Amino acid sequence: MNDYAPYTMGTGFSGIGVPDLAAHLLGIETLWQIERDPYCLKVLERHFPDATRYTDIFEAHDLPPTDIQVYGFPCQPFSLAGRRQGVKDERYLVPEMLRVIDETRPRVVVLENVPGFPTIADG
Asked: How many angstroms separate the CA atoms of 123 and 118, rounded?
């Protein structure tokens, strides 16, 4: 084991935990995951049994702070392939994601690269 404290991570809209797996391979511990899909939850539970899981970002409060957070937020409200309804889309969860980030104050935040995100509602 290393002589230094390992980095910690939390993931939002975690899917099947690909960022968590990559982090694990680098010695980074995932403390929590936010995911609501039942299949994805089963995969996460199997591969990350020690992580705390939240199934609704609206109910994810008082999360432990982490060094790193990764979010694969729903892209349909912004996607160039979709209707680009932005804040009018029920899958627009950016404000809740920003709330979690603000409450936990990670050192690093990694967001999914959605090409339509910077240009929605004139940026």
From this structure: 5
